[in-house]
TrEMBL record:
PANTHER family in UniProt: TRANSCRIPTIONAL REGULATOR WHID-RELATED
One Pfam family linked to the record: Whib
Annotated GO biological process: cell redox homeostasis; negative regulation of DNA-templated transcription
UniProt keyword annotation of DNA-binding present: yes
Post-translational modification, as annotated: The Fe-S cluster can be nitrosylated by nitric oxide (NO).
A GO CC term assigned to this protein in UniProt: cytoplasm
Cell location: Cytoplasm
The protein's name: Transcriptional regulator WhiB
Cofactor note: Binds 1 [4Fe-4S] cluster per subunit. Following nitrosylation of the [4Fe-4S] cluster binds 1 [4Fe-8(NO)] cluster per subunit.
Function: Acts as a transcriptional regulator. Probably redox-responsive. The apo- but not holo-form probably binds DNA.
Cofactor(s) in the UniProt record: [4Fe-4S] cluster
Amino acid sequence: MIKRNKRNQNKQPAAKGLSDAAIAELNGRPTELATAAPDPDSETAWMAEGNCRLHPPATFFPSDGVGVDKARKICRDCPVMSRCLDYALEERIDHGVWGGCSERERRRILKRRRDESLVATAETA
Ligand code: SF4
């Protein structure tokens, strides 16, 4: 089973020039995608099917909007895009483009879900 390094999950990437090793240290995804043989029993086995496995890891940790758009284009026809987004939302991954969404977009999705949940709770009370 692939384990992410939660200890470093909240580190802020140093924008441009972040090395592959530093990015891998953030959450492990790029190195795993590039080197790990897929373990079909792993809860992250879907990562081996992601389009990002064919691109440099830094592509998914952009420092500006142009970089985010570039990553999104790669995600757009990814066969595991929805699983990737769900995973990033469930794991509260703060950095990088996952499931075609930037950090900001994921925060908005989570906020919207929280708001909807509060409304639903209020309506049933
Ligand atoms: S949606 Fe994007 S980040 Fe996620 S696996 Fe696919 S290409 Fe990679």
